[in-house]
Amino acid sequence: MSPATPASAESPPSTASAPGELHVCEVVKTLNVGGVEVLLVERLSRAPRDGTRYTVVCLRASTGELIDRLRAAGVTVVDLSAGTRALGYARLVAAVRGLAPHVLNVHSPAPAIVLRPLLRLAPRRRPYLVSTVHYAYSPLPGLADRMLSSLVLLMDRLTRRLDDRTVAVSSQVARSPAVRHAPGLLTRVHGVDVAEQRRWAGRAAATRREFGVPDDAFLLVCVANFRPQKNHMMLVQAAAEVLAERPDAVFLLAGGGPLRERIAHLVRRRGLADRIRVLGPVSDARRLVAAADLLVLGSHYEGLPVVVMEALAAGVPVVSTRVGGVPELVVCGRNGVLTEPGSASALAAGMLRAMEPETHRALRSGVLTGAPAVDLRGTAEWFERLYRELAGAPRHA
């Protein structure tokens, strides 16, 4: 894996488009191995290349894995990680203006808030503006987090009217207050590569050996960046309750993010580091999902989690809090168990229920019957049609 390579003034990406070529720029705040970023990379890896050129711009990238995959697919990547973070948004605006795309799709609210009004005021042709909304946001615990998220949501809602189209990744996201009155609102469930996940499921034994999971262990996996919305603190508390009843359980927590060391310290303090392993970022983490007996999420809020679709595609039942678009994928008692958000005891009870041998067999059977519903095929073509319809349509004032 090569390190992330920032774009520099000495080697700017070409902004020239061939005659008749459509140039699409996709902006994401980070290129970490998270759900939003993986969805984007998976889609662009399958996007039509006949007459369309794609550029991805990110404010920072903590790993080169996704950058390598994008570049291997022929996508230009502009990584703005170099330089001071305080000037990041100024460099983002300059980069997008320099690229001069026909269509701009922004996948994170903070960059969208900055780019929408400034591109509207551009002295030359502005791009058609699309926002893809991946989450139905809910207030986080803590006054500071709640105030900041409320401000971001307010600014996002006020500037969203400048978009030409808004794409929600689930019907629940489309109904959320920040999105439901957006102009040109569309809903598209992205999906994942079901065939690839089933191949990874066939290699589950090798993956478990790689991570030192005993053959007789019941493996519970959480793949989620260590951020407040994912609520790893509650997950660790629930895992401790499960381990008191099921000492054969092993938890693997994979992901990056600012709270990783705090969660690792919490696990060590509880004396559970041998049963709850904080792995950090894992290359191609979907293989870890496919090797699990259960996928577990304790999030405060979600959109339509990629990791849940990856689990279902691999035949792995899901235990999750009932948030966001998760209930659109997980039917309690059929392919997983849903619990009320914010309750460690409820999450622990859900895991213990799903771990019962008869229940677990029934859930696995239910998962396999519904996996095609989360297939990625068609999403890249859907976005290509949207971009071309926009570029060929009269621009509103």
Automatic annotation (TrEMBL):
Gene3D superfamilies tied to this protein: Glycogen Phosphorylase B
Superkingdom of origin organism: Bacteria
EC number: 2.4.-.-
Alphabetic keyword roster: Glycosyltransferase, Transferase
GO molecular function terms noted in the UniProt entry: glycosyltransferase activity
Domain Glycosyltransferase subfamily 4-like N-terminal stretches: 33-175
Domain Glycosyl transferase family: from-to ranges: 207-361
Enzyme class: transferase
The name this protein goes by in its record: Glycosyltransferase
